[in-house]
Write a structure and sequence with these properties.
Blueprint (H helix, E strand, L loop, with lengths): L16 H12 L5 E4 L10 H7 L5 E7 L5 E6 L7 H8 L4 E3 L2 H8 L19 E6 H4 L3 E5 L5 E6 H11 L5 E3 L2
Parallel strand pairs: 3-5, 5-8
Antiparallel strand pairs: 1-7, 2-3, 2-4, 6-7
């Protein structure tokens, strides 16, 4: 798999509006990042090489919703951790959840299954989505994810994600042990 050298420069072109908005916001907030460009990845197993290159694990991001689609959750987990919907429901005090449909993900966050990223909450202007982050992720020094496309990944300080980026886009995370 092709993975570029690490850079801390903004890209010269973008694959989507989301990706451009992410880099613009990181720049605006003075959040330092390391970036790699890579061949398209479609599964967490394929992200291992990218994680090794960046020196930080690419995190698993899933989007779930309640049956009536009145509440959506963006959940961030360590790459190898399995999502336990019952445990999630108990910790969040919510009703039963299932994976969000592709069209809902696209409409609300501008992402499709396989490219979900915490950065996509930048598109959630109506605050429909609640962010839940596994404690193990929140306690890590660095956070790595895609930028809305599976051909580019970044690493930032987790503290910048939790204390600068998410509050700035009006999404205070809930930290839970999953």
């Amino acid at each position: 798999m092709y993975i570029s050298d690490i850079t801390n420069e903004m890209p010269t072109s973008y694959s989507s509006d989301l990706e451009e908005n992410v880099y613009t916001k990181l720049n605006e907030l003075n959040i330092q990042f390391d970036r790699v460009d890579n061949d398209t990845v479609e599964a967490m197993e394929e992200c291992v090489e990218i994680s090794n290159k960046l020196g930080a694990e690419i995190r698993k991001t899933i989007i779930v919703c309640n049956e009536k689609k009145t509440q959506f959750y963006l959940v961030v987990l360590p790459a190898e951790k399995r999502f336990d919907s019952k445990l999630f429901r108990d910790k969040m005090g919510c009703s039963r959840v299932s994976f969000a449909k592709a069209e809902d993900m696209q409409e609300i966050l501008g992402v499709v299954p396989g490219s979900a990223t915490i950065m996509s909450v930048i598109n959630d202007k109506d605050n429909i989505v609640k962010v839940a982050i596994d404690k193990e992720v929140a306690d890590s020094e660095f956070f790595a994810c895609n930028t809305g496309e599976n051909t580019r990944h970044i690493k930032i300080k987790t503290s910048d994600l939790l204390n600068v980026f998410l509050p700035n886009v009006n999404h205070e995370p809930t930290i839970i042990e999953l």
